[in-house]
Structure formats: C-alpha cells, structure tokens
UniProtKB/TrEMBL annotation, chain A:
This is Insulinase family protein. It comes from the Bacteria. GO terms for molecular function: metal ion binding. It comes from Tenuifilum thalassicum. Residues 186-359 form the Peptidase M16 C-terminal domain. Residues 37-142 form the Peptidase M16 N-terminal domain.
From TrEMBL, chain B:
Belongs to the peptidase M16 family. It holds the Pfam family Peptidase_M16. GO terms for biological process: proteolysis. Keywords: Coiled coil, Hydrolase, Metalloprotease, Protease, Zinc. Residues 311-338 form a coiled coil. Residues 19-129 form the Peptidase M16 N-terminal domain. This is Insulinase family protein. SUPFAM superfamilies: LuxS/MPP-like metallohydrolase.
C-alpha cells in the first residue's frame, strides 16, 4: 500500500467535539439560607471552597467599606491574631483570597486534603469571629492609599475610571470607585456594621470543588449553618436608571507615551435572552486573538500590543467595553477604526466561514470552563451570581452558538451596537478632538 | 508523580507523552532551546520578535490562529532569556490540527516584509506599554546591565533598545530562524487524554520529515565574580521611592538552587513571611516588599524589592533589608519555619499539577535542563534542605560585594 503523501496545505479533518461534560453539582440549602453547591472534580489532593456574600460595593454607603470588610477578615479573630492566621495557613500550604465586585464579596480558600481539617479551622474562624483590629485597619489604609496612588499613574486605570464615570454618572452604585483620600475615611465601626449586616446566609452561597469526601463535606456544611450567618437580612436595593448617551471624556497623564482608550455602553443582564448571541457578536468584534479588532488594529496596522472587547456582567445589567493602549499618534485613527468595525457588524452579515470559526472557538471556550476543579468552581460561582444557578444557561449558550445565523446577528447588532449611545474615555498626554477634559 | 514516556525521532526531536484521561483537553507544548541569551549583542530582542513572527503564518499555512480557533483550540507563547515556549490547548479530538500547525512553522515561516514590519511595530508598542508607560516599568532595563557586565542576561527579552528591533531585516530574521528553530533544538510534549502510541504516530507523521539543522551554538560567556557593591539612582515621575537589590546566585542545576529558592520563600512567600510581617506590618517601612529568585538556567539573581512609604528614607529601607539578610547569615532558622516553606512549596507543586498544560510545560523544561524525570525528584530535593544549608547559602549570596542596588527615586515627593 502506498503511503499517502502528506499535504501540509490542508487542515487535518475537523472532528466534532464530544459532548461537553457539564458536572452536575449537588445543591442544598442550609437552614440559614446559604446555598451549598458542591461538585467533585480533579485528580489531585485539593479542595477549594468559596464563600459568597451578597455584599458587593453597591451595598455600601461609604466608599471602600465593602472592600475593607472582606479584606480585613483575615486580620484577626477572637482566637487568633493576624499574624497567627497567616502563620497557620502558610504552615498548611493553604491560602485564602478575598475578592469583591459590584454585587458580591467572596472569600476563596484553597487547601490540600492532607491539611484540610486543621486549615479549615482557621478559615471558618476568620469568617465567623472577625474582630477587625484597629491597628490592622491602619495598615490597610496606608497600603491601600499608596497602591491606589501608584495605580493612578497608569493610563489604563485613568481611562477605566473615566469610562465608568461617564457611563454611570457619579452617584450610581455601579459607577462609583474609590479615590486615594477615601482610604483615610474608613473606620473600624464601618466594617463591623457592614459585615454584621451583609455577611448573611440568605442570598449567599458556598461553592465546594476538588477532591473532598463526604465527611469533609458534612463538616463544611455543619460549620456554615452557624449562628453568625443567621440569614435575617436581605435588603433589596433598587438601582437608579441610567441613560446611555454619547460622552467623550479625556483624562490627562503627564508624559504618557501611549494612550489608553475605552469605548462601550450598557448591555442587558446576563439572563436576558439576547445575551448568548451578543456574546457571539462580542467575540467576533474583539473577543479572541483572531477578532476583527485584533486583525485590524494590531495585525494590520501595528498600532497596539493588544486590543480586545468584553462584556462585564453585573446583577441587573452588563457593560460592554472595547479596551486598548495605542501610541499617542494613533488615538484618533484607532477610535475611527473601532467605530468602523462596530458599524460593520450592523451593515454587513458575517460570512459563514468567519461565523463557523467563531463557533468552533467558543465551543472550545465552553469546554475549558469545565476543565479542572478551579475552572469548575469559577463557573459554578458565576452561574450562581449572574444566572441564579440556571444550568440551562450553558446549554442555551451552546445551542445559540450552534444555530445562530448571520442575519440574526446583524439584526441584533442593529439593536445594540449603536456608537451614538456609547461612551468614549481616553487617557494620555494629548487631548483628542471633541473630548472634554476630566480630572479625579 | 507525573508519568511520561520519552521518544526521540531520527531528526533529533524529543517527544514526551503524559497521558491523563481526567480532562477533555490536550496540551501540546513545544520548547525551543533558544532565548534572549543566544542573541547577538548587536541584534537583541530577536527571540522575542520571533515569537511574534511565528504567528504570522508559516510556509504552507497563511494564518496560524484561524484553523486552531476553528477547532476550539487556544495558543500562546512566551520568551525568556533561556528559551522560547509555544503552547496550545485543544479538545483532544482535534489535536492533529495543533501538530499540523506547529510542525509547519518548524518547517519554515512565511517570511514576509509586511509581517515583519507590522510585528516590529507591535513589539515597539509592547515595549512602550510594558516598560515605559508603567510606573517603575523600566527598572529591569537598568538593573540587568548593572548586575551583568558580560553575560547576555544583561538585556531583557524585549531587547536592549527599540533600535535593535527597528533595524531588524528579513535576512537577519531568516538567519536567526534557521540557526535555532529546528527539530534537533526542540522538545515537544503532548499531554492529555491520549496514549503514547497514538501520540508518537501523530508526531512522526507531522514532524518526522523535517530535516535537522545546524544549530548556532556560540559559547555563552560566564559572568565574572562581582567584587564591589554597585549602585545606581534613577529619578522618575513616580509617586513613591522604591528600592531594588540584586545578588548573584547559583545556576538552575546547582545543588544549592532549592536552598536559595527556599531562602527567598522564608523572606517573602506568603503573609507570614519575614519581610511582610516585620517590614510591612511591624515597622511599617514599606507598602510592599518582595524577595524572589529569577530562576534562570545560568547563574541568576536573588532579588529584593520594596516600595517605600513617604516617611521612609532609602537609608532606613536598606538597613532594614540588610538586617533581615544578616539574621539569616548568623542565626539558624527554626525547624517549624523551614517546614512551613517546604509545605508551601509542596502545596504549590500539587496545585500546579492540576493543569495538563503546566505539566506539559514543566516536563519540557526539565528535559531541557537534562531530564524530564527531574520534575519528579524536585520535591525530594526541596525536602532535603536543612537549616545549616540555609545559613551557608545566605552567607554565600548576601555579600555586599555581590550586590547591585537601584534607588528608584520619585521626582514627585520631597527629599528625605
């Protein structure tokens, strides 16, 4: 039998990807209202626990209080000093990661199964019995202020802050951000009150993944059914309405050799029926390496090291953003090219070839979101936070990816990709035409 | 324990296969034994520029990313002073697309003036974005040539200056490619839900016919011993002062390497570490402080960095750091504290092994050092470190004559 000559110009047969194995987690509700979401996954001796509170920045009435509360949990308990907490966790090779967004605050805990019980004792102690020592808060204030001052030397930070300011105005809970002097204003009582009020079972969740056994799982559930998380409060916060209108703001940064650009608008919440298809449009525009924006601004023109677009989910809406840093001389041309690419989505149907490419890429991405315990934990937390654990969301997304037509996408682009209702924020050393000067 | 099988193709390509059925994703990692240290000092930045060009299309495939994205794959690459590493993750059903793409760009690139011009300009924007337009971003552009006088670690992977990138011609680029990118200068690892028979068959199919090349192996000069404290002050428009201290240390294969690594962990791995507890929390001299090793293959650097508070003078900062180093030189570390950093190392090691991609990368890296199986011996090497070892190496490394110090001085705050 003759050996077939290798034809390197032809891609090897494209094989369909076998069914995506979405782990079905066990979900129960504790007596205090905490949802416990657990999924066994992974091959190593690891456990990850994430405790999620409905206690993001939009619940705070004073800047930084939500962040300071979640960050300072590990700075002292009734039984342990900040140093002891650090010593013990480090000794067991475990670590914790506080995080905060507009809607939720969470603490993630990573441990090996080998040291599970001893290190979990520290984790539950800091969640249940924090004392927020004044001295530790003082260090938080100093460090936080200094770090923010350094961050604000970056054009990317300034344009992001300008973008949110223009998009939401100064008073909307989704638009505010801390300024350096805010660090001086936070007090210990703010943290105590905020955590007492918002670190509650009702509306919160615990996501457990990795190689846990039933004994460990029961132990975790037992610990969180405790009295501190008594599930009394779940205040509904009605968010003010926002009207998106074209705004162009510029923030000056001395001697910047590049300018940072952010363009975007408000999109619907993640559960909205248009969202899966909007994700596809976003991917085509700037959501992957081969996207139209990357090809145009980086690979064709060489104006930037990178450009991308993304959709940031919040509980009641999401935000669509195009983001890049370009040489000073390329700012105006880059903005007009971005507008042109956005316009193209509305005026010409995407080719079947490009659409198939994006479908293949996105299916791979969905597969990756369930690859390994950490990825699974993130997906489950995301599903809880933004889709109320609607597991159909994933299959709906896959169905939309597989079935959407170029015409449907173009129609949807007409509905959402209107550059006249977008906000433009630039930070750099030269003000572009038509922009208003902004300061922080 | 990471199981693997090793094969060597006739053209010199080494293949490592790690089978893991717990994931639907396969990783394809290709390490080329070429990094910034193999560059001509007159033409630096080439290995990294190449990383960009390698995505600009190869001899038979006009666009690299597109066919891979079509099958759900994702890829990227990084360049260090020692090596260049290209990696792909792809649903295992379509692993052949990944091998087809990697083998074609090993065969030859589609060298074009347009691709070169665009990537030169992208790299220059990368240089601006990462090194010039960030507070403290240019410190390594200055610290490297202070610490290294002879060894090519004296320039960063992005290159000594943008001029080298601007001047790169198509001929330069071709010469660099054929001198370094070859099956006999590469290590491939396939990891994921695939057995070694299948992996070998596919590798032979796509890589087997690529001819070996003459590898451009110039001797790399050894950095002479440093025998005076070197100092440099940089004045910049940054909001706070910062300090950087770099000490020469042993190479990656030296028996002291794990000791030196744990030494840096004692100082700054985790919130209970000495520098964080004493200098950030107790003395409140720094807003952040860090100690780490560069981990280079040849003799690397042990680095201490700290960002100062407005009321902290450089003198206070430096004395506080020196005091910590001095203590390691005279006092034996307690067993508990040493056990702690060993435990932390072990946990991190396990965390990493959750990813087939990291396993593939690590296997290639250790194979480049000498043998992929070293990865499986690493924990033992770290666990064998004693308190006496720590003290001995601290005395060796933390010698003031072996140190290069940079004061990164803020123009925006008052003299102190």
């Amino acid at each position: 039998m003759a050996i077939k000559e290798l034809d390197r110009t032809v891609q090897p047969n494209i094989k369909p990807v076998s069914k995506i194995n979405i782990p079905k987690p066990e979900i129960i509700e504790l007596s205090n209202g905490f949802k416990v979401i657990s999924a066994k996954a992974g091959s190593q001796d690891l456990i990850k626990i994430e405790v999620i509170f409905r206690a993001g920045t939009r619940y705070q009435t004073k800047s930084l209080v939500a962040k300071a509360s979640i960050s300072n949990l590990r700075e002292g308990t009734k039984k342990r000093s900040s140093k002891q907490i650090a010593e013990e966790l480090d000794f067991y090779g475990s670590f914790i990661e506080p995080s905060i967004n507009r809607d939720f605050a969470s603490v993630s805990f990573y441990t090996t199964g080998k040291h599970f019980f001893k290190s979990f004792d520290v984790f539950s102690d800091l969640l249940l019995n924090p004392t927020f020592p004044e001295h530790e808060l003082d260090i938080f204030r100093q460090k936080g202020k200094q770090n923010l001052l350094v961050e604000m030397e970056k054009v990317s930070t300034l344009s992001r802050m300008g973008f949110y300011k223009a998009l939401f105005g100064d008073n909307h809970p989704y638009g505010t951000f801390a300024l350096p002097h805010d660090y001086e204003m936070i007090e210990r009582d703010d943290l105590v009150n905020f955590s007492n009020k918002f670190y509650k079972g009702k509306g919160g969740a615990i996501v457990i993944t990795g190689n846990f056994d039933s004994e460990q799982l029961d132990f975790i559930k037992g610990s969180f059914a405790s009295s501190r998380f008594d599930g009394q409060t779940d205040e509904e916060y009605i968010l003010p309405r926002i009207k998106s209108n074209e705004k162009k703001i510029f923030t000056y940064k001395n001697e910047a050799v590049q300018a940072s650009i952010r363009i975007g608008r408000i999109f619907p919440e993640r559960t909205h029926p248009d969202m899966p298809a909007l994700q596809i449009l976003n991917t085509i525009l700037g959501g992957y390496f081969g996207s139209r924006l990357m090809r145009n601004i980086r690979e064709d023109k060489g104006y930037t090291y990178g450009i991308n677009s993304f959709i940031v989910p919040h509980s009641y809406l999401s935000v669509f953003v195009v983001s890049t840093e370009v040489g000073n001389n390329f700012v105006e041309h880059t903005i007009s090219e971005i507008k042109k690419e956005i316009q193209r989505l509305k005026s010409e149907p995407v080719s079947n070839d490009e659409l198939n490419l994006v479908k293949g890429y996105m299916i791979g991405q969905v597969l990756r979101t369930f690859d390994g315990p950490f990825a699974i934990a993130d997906s489950l937390a995301g599903l809880f936070e933004y889709n109320n654990l609607d597991f159909d969301y994933i299959s709906n997304t896959i169905n939309t990816i597989n079935s959407v037509t170029p015409e449907q996408l173009m129609e949807l682009a007409g509905k959402y990709f209107d550059t006249d209702s977008m906000v433009f924020s630039v930070s750099g050393s030269q003000i572009p035409d038509g922009f208003t000067q902004n300061t922080f | 324990m990471i199981d693997f099988k090793r094969f060597r193709l006739e053209n010199g390509l080494i293949l490592l296969v790690h089978t893991d059925y717990s994931t639907p994703i396969a990783a394809v990692n290709l390490l080329y034994k070429v990094g910034a240290k193999h560059e001509n000092p007159e033409k630096t930045g080439f290995a990294h520029l190449f990383e960009h060009l390698m995505f600009g299309g190869s001899v038979n495939i006009p666009v690299f990313d597109e066919p891979l994205e079509r099958v759900g794959g994702e890829n990227n690459a990084f360049t260090t002073n020692d090596l260049t590493n290209y990696y792909i993750t792809v649903p295992v059903e379509n692993i052949e697309t990944a091998l087809w793409l990697e083998s074609d760009r090993m065969l030859s690139l589609a060298f074009s003036q347009k691709s070169l011009d665009v990537q030169k300009s992208v790299v220059i924007e990368e240089f601006n974005q990462r090194y010039l337009n960030q507070p403290y971003g240019d410190v390594w552009l200055n610290l490297r040539p202070l610490a290294y006088k002879v060894h090519p670690y004296r320039w960063p992977t992005i290159g000594m200056s943008v001029e080298h990138i601007q001047k790169a011609t198509l001929d330069d680029v071709k010469e660099f490619f054929y001198g370094h990118y070859a099956p006999n200068n590469a290590i491939l690892c396939i990891a994921g839900p695939i057995d070694d028979v299948k992996a070998l068959e596919l590798t032979k199919r796509w890589f087997g016919s690529i001819e070996p090349r003459n590898i451009d192996r110039k001797a790399i000069p050894k950095e002479p011993e440093q025998n005076e404290h070197r100092r440099l002050t940089l004045e910049r428009d940054v909001p706070f002062n910062a300090i950087y201290k770099a000490y020469h240390m042993c190479n990656r294969m030296h028996p002291d390497f794990p000791i030196t690594d744990l030494l840096s962990d004692l100082l700054s791995n985790g919130r209970s570490s000495r520098l964080y507890q004493r200098l950030v929390k107790e003395k409140q001299l720094f807003s952040s402080v860090n100690a780490y090793i560069t981990g280079d293959v040849d003799e690397g650097l042990f680095v201490l960095t700290g960002q100062l508070y407005e009321n902290t003078s450089f003198k206070m900062a430096e004395e506080a750091l020196n005091q910590e180093l001095e203590e390691l030189k005279v006092k034996l570390v307690k067993t508990d504290e040493l056990d702690k950093v060993k435990n932390k190392f072990e946990a991190n090691f396990i965390f990493e092994q959750e990813s087939v991609m990291v396993n593939a990368l690590n296997l290639c890296y250790y194979e480049m050092l000498s043998d992929a199986n070293l990865l499986n011996l690493e924990l033992d090497r770290y666990n064998a470190v004693t308190a006496e070892d720590i003290k001995r190496v601290a005395n060796q490394v933390f010698d003031v004559k072996n140190c290069s110090t940079v004061y990164y001085k803020s123009n925006l705050i008052n003299e102190n």
